[in-house]
Specification:
Its EC number is 1.1.1.94. It comes from Flectobacillus longus. It is built from 16 helices and ten strands. By secondary structure, the chain is an alpha/beta fold.
Length: 341
């Protein structure tokens, strides 16, 4: 085997991060703790100019400083993708097709693609990694996904957090886990890419259900019952769609991610649901939040996917009926109560 020259051994890992939101900003903060060079693509040129001048995101996690020696902002995605080893996708799932519409397979050839998106591609009803494989020909062994439990706001505060990096290629998962590990982050690799992705998608819908019931005046007792039933829904769904005898849904990448999203004050999906429960329309809630709640799009996709499998998912059905069938939240949750145990 050819010996790697000493001067090349400590070269920084080249990484592109696509997306300008809070989670993209948090990921950049984590990666910056290690030996990396980050090319950060943001949609708004004004944000790029601001970051170059002031070294922090003007719109999200505004108090989190960015290391100018390791992070460079770009407005042209082609430039951000040039010469990198990893591409981290942190654009909301609903906007991914538009964001990547001017790219082709060559832009992702030979690169490891890591989805930090906890949503599905609307209309296509596909996981982000499946979509990247279909549209851009990224092989499965070059795909990975990041799961929580980990809120961007706590990363900015450097609170101890844990991440799960999933990939069918455990070496890819381990290598990226090493890049995402630092003094306040512990990242662990696993092989269950699709189980982790589907769980991350569904837990956002469950968080919306928790928010809706909270907005209607239900208490912690009911929410605890609903979350425990939700874990059973997730298991039933995954056992049919992507069975894996080694999957442990009680681990932090699954149950932990569900719990933090269902209960945390930082959960945008719970916040969105709470507004719906209090009487906001979907449009009004979206305008007031000014952030994307992935669960809104995801519940329609999961509902469509489940038509093929017919898994019993009463919580998912209730959220879908409220958001897309204009069911009255109080009536729908009253019906849901009869399915919970």
């Amino acid at each position: 085997m050819t010996e790697i020259p000493a001067f090349k051994k400590n070269l920084p890992t080249q990484i592109a991060v696509l997306g300008g939101g809070s989670w993209a900003t948090a990921i950049i903060k984590i990666l910056s703790e290690n030996n990396v060079k980050i090319k950060w693509w943001l949609r708004r040129k004004s944000d790029v100019d601001f970051i170059k001048k002031y070294n922090h995101n003007p719109s999200y996690l505004t108090d989190a400083p960015l290391n100018p020696r390791k992070v460079r902002a770009y407005h042209k995605m082609h430039d951000a993708l040039n010469g990198v080893e990893y591409v981290i996708l942190a654009v909301p799932a609903a906007f991914i097709p538009d964001a990547l519409k001017n790219l082709n397979r060559n832009h992702f050839a030979g690169k490891k693609i890591v989805s930090a998106i906890k949503g599905m591609i609307p209309e296509e009803n596909m996981l982000v990694t499946d979509w990247m494989e279909k549209v851009f020909g990224v092989p499965q062994n070059m795909l990975a996904a990041i799961a929580g439990p980990c809120h961007a706001e706590e990363v900015a505060l450097e609170k101890q957090s844990y991440l799960t990096i999933a990939s069918p290629n455990l070496q890819v998962a381990q290598d990226y886990a090493n890049l995402m590990s630092c003094r306040y982050i512990q990242a662990n690799p696993i092989g269950d890419l699709y189980g982790v992705e589907y769980c991350a998608v569904i837990k956002n819908i469950i968080a919306m259900a928790c928010g809706i019931t909270h907005g209607l005046g239900y208490g912690d007792n009911f929410q605890a019952v609903m979350v425990s039933n939700a874990m059973q829904e997730i298991k039933r769904f995954l056992d049919i769609v992507y069975p894996d005898p080694y999957r442990d849904l009680h681990s932090s990448g699954y149950l932990g991610d569900l719990l933090v999203t269902a209960y945390s004050q930082f959960s945008r999906n719970r916040t969105f649901g709470n507004m719906i429960g209090r009487g906001y329309s979907v449009k009004s809630a979206q305008i007031e939040m000014n952030m994307v709640a992935e669960g809104y799009y995801a519940v329609k996709s999961i509902h469509q996917v489940n038509k093929q499998y017919d898994v019993s998912m009463p919580i998912i059905d209730a959220v879908y009926n409220i958001l897309y069938e204009k069911a009255i939240p109080a009536n729908e949750i009253m019906t849901l109560r009869t399915f919970l145990k």
